[in-house]
Amino acid sequence: MDSPDWTPAETEVLVRSMMRAPSVHNTQPWLLDVAPGELSVRERAEPALPHHDPDGRDRAASCGAAVANLELAVRTLGRTAEVAFLPDDGQAELVARVAVGGAEAPSVEELRRYGAIARRASHRAPFEGLVVPEPVVREIVAAGGAAGVEARPVREVAAVARLLHFAARSFQQDGGYQRELSLWTIRDERAHHHGVGLPASRVPAGSVPWAGLVRRATEIPLPAELERRLAAETLLLFVTADDARSDHVRAGYAMERAWLAAVDVGLAAAVLTQPLHLEPVRSALCEDLGLTGFPQALLRIGYTAEADPAAPRRAVEEVLRQGFSPSAH
Predict the structure, then answer these.
(1) pLDDT band for position 325 (50/70/90)?
(2) Average pLDDT across the chain, whole number
(3) Phi and psi for 298 in degrees, rounded to 5?
């Protein structure tokens, strides 16, 4: 059974759900093509982050996270969805196609996790210090499973603390990284109308290791203090079997699925990828944790008393490529 044309209301559900995905420096590096029975997610060639994301790993992972949201939106609209990652070698920018079939009611779990999309935001401050129960951690780990991706809890906090300290020192002294971070930081949030970038108010001072964004003035705790802080958090590491672009996309897809599962049960989260762009850190993490694959992202999970405000977003017209005009609000 072929899917009928999308109505304007359905199209807006699809594109706005995808737009709410997390992305590197809130660049939202994706485009959406909408056609009867098929949705295509494409990666923007720009913007580039040569100092933070020189190989485009985080940009590809960001697009993978958007695919996870889009899949949930299709299911919530009552259609079947079958995702194919990097389906066409001739179209390098094509990240995924979602084949949309006939009517099929979404599960209660899918509806709940779709509802979590609007509540998901990066929590860059400390958590409340409450321990996440093991059954909940297992549920989130299971949600973050995807072909070729393993989500695993991190118990070796001393090793992670040492590596985060090394990475923070390196980024603090990297002039190119600091200039790039400054360019993508929104100073005057009331006058900002571009829908991309990191609001300065969302990056608390002295936030290592929580924000993962290290500025010149950031006070970097000693490894022992970082270890103490990390021991009070729940950390998940996403590991892929290989390190190709398809692995980066799938890692982002799996990470977003885990993040939405965490939000659904009342938790907050934030992702750390910056340290893994330093090859000494990535290699040492593999050795210290006995990994047989490639670490792609760390996800911090915990309880927080206050909801995090959403970051700015692009206009629908910047994301949807088919000339759709959204309904008035």
Answers:
(1) very low
(2) 90
(3) -110, 135
pLDDT tens string 198-219: 777 766 666 788 878 888 888 8
| Homologous superfamily, domain 8-120+310-319 | NADH Oxidase (3.40.109.10)
pLDDT 10s digits, 276-302 = 999 999 999 999 999 999 999 999 999
Virtual torsion, Cα 147, 16, 53, 184, nearest 10 deg: -160
Q: How many CA atoms lie within 13 A of 22 on its CB side?
A: 27
Over the range 269-285, which residues count as b (16 or more CB within 10 Å of their CB) and which as e? Answer: bbbbbbbbbbeebbebb
Q: Which two tokens stand for residue 327?
A: 């309904």
Nearest-angstrom CA–CA distance, 81 and 97 = 10
134-302: same fold as 8-120+310-319? Answer: yes
Q: Which helix (H) or strand (E) holds 299?
A: strand 294-302
The arithmetic mean of pLDDT across residues 53-69, rounded, is 96
Tokens of 169: 């020192």
Q: Which of 18, 25, 28, 20 is nearest to 96 (CA)?
A: 18
Assess if CATH 3.40.109.10 describes domain 134-302: yes
| DSSP symbols for 161-227 | HHHHHHHHHHHHT-HHHHHHHHHTEES-STT--SS-SEEGGGS-TT-TTTS----TT--PPPHHHHH
Q: Which residues contact 244 (CB under 8 A, 6 or more apart)?
A: none
Query: Which of the residue ranges 43-52, 101-110, 198-207, 314-323 would you say has the lowest mean pLDDT?
Result: 198-207
CA separation (Å) from 178 to 45, 46, 53, 202? 22, 20, 13, 17
| Cis check: omega of the bond before 312, within 30 degrees of 0 | no
Phi/psi of residue 32, nearest 5 degrees:
-125, 130
- Phi/psi of residue 78, each to 5°? 85, 25
Beta bridge partners of 299: 236, 271
| Helix ranges restricted to H, the chain | 8-19, 57-76, 108-117, 134-143, 157-172, 175-183, 223-231, 245-264, 279-289, 316-319
**What are the domain boundaries of the chain?**
8-120+310-319, 134-302
